Amino acid sequence: MIGIIDYEAGNIASVRNALSRLSVDFTVTNDIKKLEQCDGYIFPGVGHAYSAMRSLEEHHLIEWMKNVQKPLLGICLDMQLLFEESEEGSSKGIGVIPGKLKKFDSDLGKVPHMGWNTFTDIKEHNLLRGIGKEDYFYYVHSYYAPVNEFTLATCDYINRFASVVARDNFLGAQFHPEKSGEIGERLLSNFLTIVTDWSPVTV
């Protein structure tokens, strides 16, 4: 069972439709007790970072998410919220991935970055199995994530930025896989395989 984290700031409908096409069982909820019964999570967000973090706080989800031990995929804004902070509203993030989001310079190109784009660099990872530099994904964003050791794939638009990230069980995609056709569904299928094969770390 996949839990779609509903915090009243997400792009729920398109993710629901994508999972339905993949014949995946899912629930949409912000109830932590119900989420804890799920095998993995999709964290779909659109909008403003500060407002999203405030909504997460109101639903008591921030500390819970920091301590999640199962695979979690953040999409678009919610990939960004996995980082420490953002220039957007001087917002703090959840902080499981280091770095600060910055805004694209509108003097150098049209902002937001909207439309189809490819990867410039890509690392091997189960999330990206069967996906290459020739594949196009759909982006809509005005802020970009820094490239660091947790970057799996980069994209170029005005700046080189992190397009796919992973740290332990926390995964993120800046683009919208649920709006990226067959190749987007491949990435979602890869995530579902990660969920199925996941073995929690024991101390």
Structure characterization notes:
With 203 residues, the protein is an alpha/beta fold. The protein has one domain (2-197): Class I glutamine amidotransferase (GATase) domain (Rossmann fold, 3-Layer(aba) Sandwich), CATH 3.40.50. 25% of the residues lie in helices and 33% in strands. The protein has helices at residues 12-21, 32-35, 49-58, 62-66, 77-80, 181-197, and strands at 2-5, 26-29, 40-45, 72-76, 83-86, 91-92, 97-103, 113-117, 121-122, 137-141, 143-144, 151-157, 159-167, 170-173. An eight-stranded mixed β-sheet has the order 2-1-3-4-14-13-12-9. A hairpin with a 2-residue loop joins strand 13 (159-167) and strand 14 (170-173). The mean pLDDT is 94.
Write the layout of secondary structure elements.
Blueprint: E1 2-5, H1 12-21, E2 26-29, H2 32-35, E3 40-45, H3 49-58, H4 62-66, E4 72-76, H5 77-80, E5 83-86, E6 91-92, E7 97-103, E8 113-117, E9 121-122, E10 137-141, E11 143-144, E12 151-157, E13 159-167, E14 170-173, H6 181-197
Parallel strand pairs: 1-2, 1-3, 3-4, 4-14, 5-7
Antiparallel strand pairs: 5-6, 7-11, 8-10, 9-12, 12-13, 13-14
